[in-house]
Design a protein that fits this description.
alpha/beta
Amino acid sequence: MRELDKDRHVSSSAGTFRLDPELAAISVLIPDFDLRNVEDARRLEEQLADQGRQPVPGVFTEDLRIPRRDGGELALRLYRPHRAEHLPVILYLHGGAFMLGSLSTEDDRCGFYARDAQCLVVAVDYRLAPEHAYPAAFHDAVDALAWIQTQARNLRIDARRIAVGGNSAGGALAAALALESRSAAVPSLVHQLLINPALDHRGSSASMNIFTSTPGWTRDNNALMWQTYLSGTTTIDYRASPALVADASGAPPASIWIAEYDPLRDEGYDYARALMNAGVQVGLIQYPGTIHGFDSYRMTSVGQRALSDQILALRRAFRT
Protein backbone atom coordinates (compact mmCIF):
# COMPACT_ATOMS: atom_id res chain seq x y z
CA MET A 1 0.00 0.00 0.00
CA ARG A 2 1.15 3.55 -0.63
CA GLU A 3 1.62 5.96 2.19
CA LEU A 4 1.67 9.75 2.23
CA ASP A 5 3.17 11.49 5.22
CA LYS A 6 2.42 14.97 6.53
CA ASP A 7 5.52 16.36 4.78
CA ARG A 8 4.14 15.34 1.38
CA HIS A 9 6.38 12.39 0.73
CA VAL A 10 5.51 9.12 -0.94
CA SER A 11 6.99 5.85 0.24
CA SER A 12 8.51 3.23 -2.05
CA SER A 13 10.58 0.12 -1.66
CA ALA A 14 13.75 2.19 -1.84
CA GLY A 15 12.80 4.94 0.56
CA THR A 16 10.77 8.11 0.66
CA PHE A 17 10.47 10.62 -2.16
CA ARG A 18 9.11 14.15 -2.21
CA LEU A 19 6.09 14.74 -4.44
CA ASP A 20 5.13 17.94 -6.20
CA PRO A 21 3.13 19.79 -3.49
CA GLU A 22 -0.07 20.05 -5.53
CA LEU A 23 0.07 16.39 -6.52
CA ALA A 24 0.76 15.45 -2.92
CA ALA A 25 -2.36 17.29 -1.83
CA ILE A 26 -4.57 15.19 -4.12
CA SER A 27 -2.62 11.92 -4.23
CA VAL A 28 -4.62 10.31 -1.43
CA LEU A 29 -7.74 10.85 -3.55
CA ILE A 30 -6.35 9.05 -6.61
CA PRO A 31 -8.38 5.85 -7.01
CA ASP A 32 -6.78 2.42 -6.89
CA PHE A 33 -8.17 0.37 -9.78
CA ASP A 34 -8.38 -3.31 -8.93
CA LEU A 35 -7.51 -4.90 -12.27
CA ARG A 36 -8.33 -8.31 -10.85
CA ASN A 37 -11.99 -7.28 -11.02
CA VAL A 38 -12.26 -5.80 -14.50
CA GLU A 39 -15.99 -5.12 -14.43
CA ASP A 40 -15.80 -3.06 -11.25
CA ALA A 41 -12.67 -1.26 -12.45
CA ARG A 42 -14.41 -0.35 -15.71
CA ARG A 43 -17.44 0.99 -13.90
CA LEU A 44 -15.23 3.16 -11.69
CA GLU A 45 -13.25 4.42 -14.67
CA GLU A 46 -16.42 5.30 -16.56
CA GLN A 47 -17.85 7.14 -13.56
CA LEU A 48 -14.71 9.20 -13.16
CA ALA A 49 -14.58 9.96 -16.89
CA ASP A 50 -18.20 11.08 -16.91
CA GLN A 51 -17.72 13.26 -13.83
CA GLY A 52 -14.66 14.96 -15.27
CA ARG A 53 -15.91 15.45 -18.81
CA GLN A 54 -16.00 19.11 -19.83
CA PRO A 55 -16.33 19.84 -23.57
CA VAL A 56 -13.65 22.21 -24.80
CA PRO A 57 -15.13 25.41 -26.26
CA GLY A 58 -14.34 25.91 -29.92
CA VAL A 59 -14.27 22.22 -30.82
CA PHE A 60 -16.79 20.14 -32.78
CA THR A 61 -17.03 16.42 -32.02
CA GLU A 62 -18.45 13.63 -34.15
CA ASP A 63 -18.90 9.97 -33.24
CA LEU A 64 -18.84 7.42 -36.03
CA ARG A 65 -18.15 3.77 -36.74
CA ILE A 66 -15.86 2.30 -39.37
CA PRO A 67 -15.37 -1.29 -40.56
CA ARG A 68 -12.88 -3.49 -38.75
CA ARG A 69 -10.78 -6.10 -40.52
CA ASP A 70 -12.71 -8.91 -38.80
CA GLY A 71 -16.05 -7.66 -40.11
CA GLY A 72 -17.01 -5.83 -36.93
CA GLU A 73 -17.14 -2.09 -36.34
CA LEU A 74 -14.67 0.26 -34.68
CA ALA A 75 -15.95 3.36 -32.87
CA LEU A 76 -14.10 6.64 -33.38
CA ARG A 77 -14.58 10.16 -32.07
CA LEU A 78 -13.41 13.09 -34.16
CA TYR A 79 -12.47 16.47 -32.67
CA ARG A 80 -12.23 19.41 -35.04
CA PRO A 81 -11.52 23.08 -34.35
CA HIS A 82 -14.18 25.44 -35.73
CA ARG A 83 -14.05 26.38 -39.41
CA ALA A 84 -10.77 24.54 -39.99
CA GLU A 85 -9.71 22.96 -43.30
CA HIS A 86 -6.66 21.05 -44.53
CA LEU A 87 -5.78 20.10 -40.97
CA PRO A 88 -2.98 17.91 -39.70
CA VAL A 89 -4.17 14.87 -37.73
CA ILE A 90 -3.26 12.97 -34.59
CA LEU A 91 -4.61 9.47 -34.05
CA TYR A 92 -4.99 9.25 -30.26
CA LEU A 93 -5.08 6.05 -28.17
CA HIS A 94 -6.34 6.29 -24.59
CA GLY A 95 -4.75 4.70 -21.54
CA GLY A 96 -6.27 2.10 -19.24
CA ALA A 97 -3.94 -0.89 -18.92
CA PHE A 98 -5.33 -2.39 -22.18
CA MET A 99 -8.37 -3.36 -20.08
CA LEU A 100 -10.13 -0.08 -19.24
CA GLY A 101 -11.14 3.05 -21.08
CA SER A 102 -13.37 4.31 -23.85
CA LEU A 103 -13.88 7.37 -26.03
CA SER A 104 -14.72 9.33 -22.88
CA THR A 105 -11.52 8.50 -21.02
CA GLU A 106 -9.43 11.37 -22.37
CA ASP A 107 -12.12 13.46 -23.97
CA ASP A 108 -10.86 16.81 -22.71
CA ARG A 109 -7.24 16.09 -23.68
CA CYS A 110 -8.35 15.39 -27.24
CA GLY A 111 -10.39 18.59 -27.26
CA PHE A 112 -7.43 20.67 -26.10
CA TYR A 113 -5.18 19.08 -28.71
CA ALA A 114 -7.71 19.89 -31.46
CA ARG A 115 -8.25 23.49 -30.43
CA ASP A 116 -4.76 24.52 -29.37
CA ALA A 117 -2.65 22.51 -31.81
CA GLN A 118 -5.16 23.26 -34.58
CA CYS A 119 -5.48 19.66 -35.73
CA LEU A 120 -8.07 16.97 -36.24
CA VAL A 121 -7.96 14.43 -33.41
CA VAL A 122 -9.20 10.92 -34.11
CA ALA A 123 -9.73 8.99 -30.86
CA VAL A 124 -10.05 5.21 -31.10
CA ASP A 125 -12.29 2.97 -28.99
CA TYR A 126 -10.03 -0.03 -29.48
CA ARG A 127 -10.97 -3.48 -28.23
CA LEU A 128 -9.98 -4.33 -24.66
CA ALA A 129 -8.51 -7.34 -22.89
CA PRO A 130 -9.27 -9.83 -21.47
CA GLU A 131 -12.12 -10.27 -23.95
CA HIS A 132 -9.84 -9.22 -26.79
CA ALA A 133 -6.17 -9.86 -26.10
CA TYR A 134 -3.29 -8.84 -28.35
CA PRO A 135 -3.28 -8.21 -31.30
CA ALA A 136 -6.88 -6.90 -31.34
CA ALA A 137 -6.07 -3.40 -30.03
CA PHE A 138 -3.03 -3.10 -32.27
CA HIS A 139 -5.05 -4.14 -35.32
CA ASP A 140 -7.71 -1.57 -34.42
CA ALA A 141 -5.05 1.14 -34.30
CA VAL A 142 -3.67 0.09 -37.69
CA ASP A 143 -7.17 0.00 -39.21
CA ALA A 144 -7.99 3.45 -37.85
CA LEU A 145 -4.79 4.88 -39.31
CA ALA A 146 -5.50 3.32 -42.70
CA TRP A 147 -9.02 4.76 -42.61
CA ILE A 148 -7.67 8.26 -41.95
CA GLN A 149 -5.50 8.07 -45.02
CA THR A 150 -8.22 6.72 -47.32
CA GLN A 151 -10.71 9.32 -46.06
CA ALA A 152 -8.34 12.29 -46.25
CA ARG A 153 -10.46 14.17 -48.81
CA ASN A 154 -13.72 13.66 -46.90
CA LEU A 155 -12.06 14.55 -43.62
CA ARG A 156 -10.56 17.72 -45.14
CA ILE A 157 -7.13 16.90 -43.78
CA ASP A 158 -3.52 16.95 -44.92
CA ALA A 159 -2.56 13.26 -45.20
CA ARG A 160 1.12 14.26 -45.27
CA ARG A 161 0.86 15.42 -41.64
CA ILE A 162 -0.42 12.51 -39.55
CA ALA A 163 0.86 11.85 -36.02
CA VAL A 164 0.06 9.20 -33.44
CA GLY A 165 -0.17 9.63 -29.70
CA GLY A 166 -1.11 7.71 -26.62
CA ASN A 167 -1.00 7.64 -22.84
CA SER A 168 0.29 4.69 -20.77
CA ALA A 169 -1.03 1.52 -22.48
CA GLY A 170 -2.14 3.80 -25.30
CA GLY A 171 1.49 4.89 -25.48
CA ALA A 172 2.47 1.27 -26.11
CA LEU A 173 -0.01 1.09 -28.98
CA ALA A 174 1.17 4.44 -30.35
CA ALA A 175 4.84 3.38 -30.24
CA ALA A 176 4.04 0.06 -31.89
CA LEU A 177 2.05 1.80 -34.60
CA ALA A 178 4.90 4.26 -35.17
CA LEU A 179 7.33 1.37 -35.66
CA GLU A 180 4.89 -0.37 -37.99
CA SER A 181 4.53 2.82 -40.03
CA ARG A 182 7.93 2.04 -41.53
CA SER A 183 6.16 -0.65 -43.55
CA ALA A 184 4.77 0.24 -46.96
CA ALA A 185 1.46 -1.29 -45.87
CA VAL A 186 0.92 1.35 -43.16
CA PRO A 187 0.63 5.13 -43.65
CA SER A 188 3.73 7.08 -42.71
CA LEU A 189 3.75 9.38 -39.68
CA VAL A 190 5.39 12.70 -38.89
CA HIS A 191 5.49 12.24 -35.11
CA GLN A 192 4.80 9.96 -32.16
CA LEU A 193 3.66 11.49 -28.86
CA LEU A 194 4.28 9.03 -26.01
CA ILE A 195 2.91 10.01 -22.59
CA ASN A 196 4.06 7.93 -19.59
CA PRO A 197 4.23 5.01 -22.04
CA ALA A 198 4.18 1.32 -21.11
CA LEU A 199 6.78 -0.12 -23.45
CA ASP A 200 8.29 -3.32 -22.06
CA HIS A 201 6.30 -6.38 -21.01
CA ARG A 202 9.31 -7.78 -19.13
CA GLY A 203 8.93 -5.24 -16.30
CA SER A 204 12.54 -5.57 -15.20
CA SER A 205 13.73 -1.95 -15.13
CA ALA A 206 15.22 -0.31 -12.07
CA SER A 207 12.27 2.06 -11.66
CA MET A 208 9.83 -0.87 -11.80
CA ASN A 209 11.63 -2.35 -8.80
CA ILE A 210 11.91 0.94 -6.92
CA PHE A 211 8.46 2.50 -7.30
CA THR A 212 6.51 -0.65 -6.60
CA SER A 213 3.43 0.92 -5.01
CA THR A 214 3.42 4.62 -5.82
CA PRO A 215 0.12 6.41 -6.53
CA GLY A 216 -1.17 6.11 -10.07
CA TRP A 217 0.53 2.84 -11.03
CA THR A 218 2.09 -0.16 -9.30
CA ARG A 219 4.39 -3.02 -10.20
CA ASP A 220 1.65 -5.59 -9.51
CA ASN A 221 -0.82 -3.83 -11.80
CA ASN A 222 1.85 -3.59 -14.47
CA ALA A 223 2.51 -7.34 -14.36
CA LEU A 224 -1.21 -8.13 -14.45
CA MET A 225 -1.73 -5.73 -17.35
CA TRP A 226 0.84 -7.41 -19.56
CA GLN A 227 -0.21 -10.90 -18.50
CA THR A 228 -3.79 -10.13 -19.50
CA TYR A 229 -2.98 -8.27 -22.71
CA LEU A 230 -0.59 -10.95 -23.97
CA SER A 231 -2.69 -13.93 -22.86
CA GLY A 232 -2.44 -16.69 -25.45
CA THR A 233 0.24 -14.88 -27.43
CA THR A 234 2.99 -17.23 -28.59
CA THR A 235 5.15 -14.71 -30.45
CA ILE A 236 5.88 -11.40 -28.74
CA ASP A 237 7.61 -8.74 -30.82
CA TYR A 238 7.68 -4.93 -31.02
CA ARG A 239 4.05 -4.81 -32.13
CA ALA A 240 3.08 -6.04 -28.69
CA SER A 241 5.99 -4.71 -26.63
CA PRO A 242 7.82 -1.88 -28.45
CA ALA A 243 10.97 -2.20 -26.32
CA LEU A 244 11.70 -5.45 -28.17
CA VAL A 245 12.45 -3.65 -31.44
CA ALA A 246 15.91 -4.67 -32.65
CA ASP A 247 16.44 -1.60 -34.83
CA ALA A 248 14.21 1.49 -34.67
CA SER A 249 15.76 3.10 -37.76
CA GLY A 250 13.23 4.97 -39.83
CA ALA A 251 10.73 5.48 -37.03
CA PRO A 252 9.07 8.92 -36.90
CA PRO A 253 10.41 11.59 -34.53
CA ALA A 254 9.22 11.16 -30.96
CA SER A 255 8.26 13.19 -27.92
CA ILE A 256 8.35 11.23 -24.67
CA TRP A 257 6.86 12.48 -21.40
CA ILE A 258 8.08 10.92 -18.17
CA ALA A 259 7.00 11.10 -14.53
CA GLU A 260 9.82 10.95 -11.98
CA TYR A 261 8.19 8.44 -9.61
CA ASP A 262 6.53 6.26 -12.23
CA PRO A 263 7.37 2.53 -12.34
CA LEU A 264 7.42 3.00 -16.13
CA ARG A 265 9.99 5.80 -15.97
CA ASP A 266 13.06 3.87 -17.05
CA GLU A 267 11.23 2.16 -19.91
CA GLY A 268 10.76 5.62 -21.37
CA TYR A 269 14.45 6.43 -21.03
CA ASP A 270 15.52 3.08 -22.48
CA TYR A 271 13.21 3.51 -25.44
CA ALA A 272 14.42 7.07 -26.03
CA ARG A 273 18.00 5.76 -26.17
CA ALA A 274 16.99 3.02 -28.61
CA LEU A 275 15.38 5.59 -30.88
CA MET A 276 18.32 8.00 -30.65
CA ASN A 277 20.83 5.21 -31.30
CA ALA A 278 18.88 4.50 -34.49
CA GLY A 279 19.13 8.14 -35.56
CA VAL A 280 15.54 9.07 -34.65
CA GLN A 281 14.96 12.58 -33.34
CA VAL A 282 13.69 12.49 -29.75
CA GLY A 283 12.41 15.13 -27.38
CA LEU A 284 12.16 13.96 -23.77
CA ILE A 285 10.93 15.69 -20.62
CA GLN A 286 10.84 14.35 -17.06
CA TYR A 287 8.71 16.31 -14.60
CA PRO A 288 10.10 16.40 -11.04
CA GLY A 289 7.99 15.09 -8.19
CA THR A 290 5.38 13.51 -10.43
CA ILE A 291 3.58 10.16 -10.61
CA HIS A 292 2.06 8.11 -13.39
CA GLY A 293 -0.84 9.92 -15.02
CA PHE A 294 0.01 13.23 -13.37
CA ASP A 295 -0.79 15.24 -16.49
CA SER A 296 -4.43 14.17 -16.26
CA TYR A 297 -4.75 16.25 -13.07
CA ARG A 298 -5.04 19.59 -14.77
CA MET A 299 -6.06 21.37 -11.60
CA THR A 300 -2.30 21.27 -10.82
CA SER A 301 0.31 23.56 -12.30
CA VAL A 302 2.51 20.67 -13.39
CA GLY A 303 -0.45 18.97 -15.09
CA GLN A 304 -1.27 22.16 -16.98
CA ARG A 305 2.37 22.60 -17.93
CA ALA A 306 2.63 19.07 -19.31
CA LEU A 307 -0.49 19.54 -21.44
CA SER A 308 0.89 22.81 -22.79
CA ASP A 309 4.20 21.12 -23.58
CA GLN A 310 2.41 18.34 -25.47
CA ILE A 311 0.46 20.85 -27.54
CA LEU A 312 3.65 22.74 -28.33
CA ALA A 313 5.30 19.50 -29.47
CA LEU A 314 2.38 18.80 -31.80
CA ARG A 315 2.44 22.29 -33.26
CA ARG A 316 6.14 21.93 -33.97
CA ALA A 317 5.70 18.47 -35.49
CA PHE A 318 2.93 19.65 -37.78
CA ARG A 319 5.08 22.50 -39.09
CA THR A 320 7.44 20.00 -40.72
